[in-house]
Amino acid sequence: MQSQLGLAHFWSQGDFVTHAVAILLLLLSVSSWMVIVGRGVWQWKTNRCFEHAMSAFWSAESLDRAVEAIKAEDSSGVFAHMAAAGAAAAQAHAQHGARGIGAGVSQSESVTRALRSQIVRTQAGIEQGLTFLASVGSTSPFIGLFGTVWGIYHALVGLSGATQVVLDKVAGPVGEALIMTAAGLFVAIPAVLAYNALTRGNRIVMAQLDGFAHDLHVYLTTGARSGSVQPVPAGQLARAA
To answer: What phi, psi does 120 have (nearest 5°)?
Structure first.
């Protein structure tokens, strides 16, 4: 009896519901790890290139060269897109600010609107996958628990016709069914930990982006250069997000 117990025995004795729950947990685990690795690598690249991107931008001789320089250094594209959006807004206002529905709007307001829109787009992009991780972390234990309950029910139904039920015949199937609960926790715990870590990393990126947007706004509207870009708490230009 002991040699027959295990994952293979549990799978062979399971029905359609048990197999479906196991496959669902496997798919959730693979998908969550894909999100974890993808977002983790992206945050690592963003944090790694931040200083080089800022140095390349503020040391350029002109705005056009600064945009090209930050595109070359910013492999994540977060800060490069912000610089390009701000520069495009400033140039568009200089060319078309005197006509159209935007006539009468100051350059500062035009640049602010463009930077805010870019912050919203960036924030929406960096939060991709976090809702999925939160859903996996909150539902996987219950999916595993359902698999356990169904496995125990299936095992007890199989023993219902036995004239004599001993502890070994009950403990084996029940113990195998508990594997589903362990599988649910195995899927949920990494998802929850990764969600918390990625959320913190996103806050750091947004703080860096907000600081860069603030200094970029000052430069585009007044011509003053920033000596160094210091991350500030998100909430200035990002407040509209």
So the answer is: -60, -45
Domain assignment present for 156: no
Is 88 within a domain? yes
Q: Which of 18-27, 120-129, 134-143 has the highest mean pLDDT?
A: 134-143
Encoded tokens for 104 = 């009468």
CA 194/CA 157 separation, integer angstroms? 40
Residue 159, both tokens = 């023993």
pTM of the predicted structure, to 2 decimals: 0.76
From the centroid of its chain, how far is CA 100? 39
Q: What is the pLDDT of residue 92?
A: 80
Minimal CA–CA distance to 180: which of 34, 19, 30?
19
Q: What's the rounded Cα separation, in Å, for the pair 9 and 71?
A: 56
- Does residue 50 form part of some domain? yes
Q: Do 203 and 234 contact (CB within 8 A), yes or no?
A: yes
Q: What is the per-residue pLDDT for 132? A: 94
Residue 87 pLDDT more than 90?
Answer: no
* Residues of the domain holding 47: 15-97+104-151+178-240
When the pLDDT of each residue in the chain is averaged and rounded to a whole number, the result is 80
Which pLDDT belongs to residue 224?
64
Asked if 146 contacts 21 with a C-beta cutoff of 8 angstroms, the reply is yes
Q: Identify which of 93, 86, 46 has the alpha carbon closest to the alpha carbon of residue 64.
A: 86
Q: For the purposes of burial, counting CB atoms within 10 Å of the CB of 30, is it exposed (0-12), middle (13-18) or buried (19 or more)?
A: exposed
Side-chain half-sphere CA neighbours of 84 within 13 A: 11
The residue type of 190 is P
> Which token pair is 203?
């806050």
| DSSP-based three-state secondary structure for 147 | helix
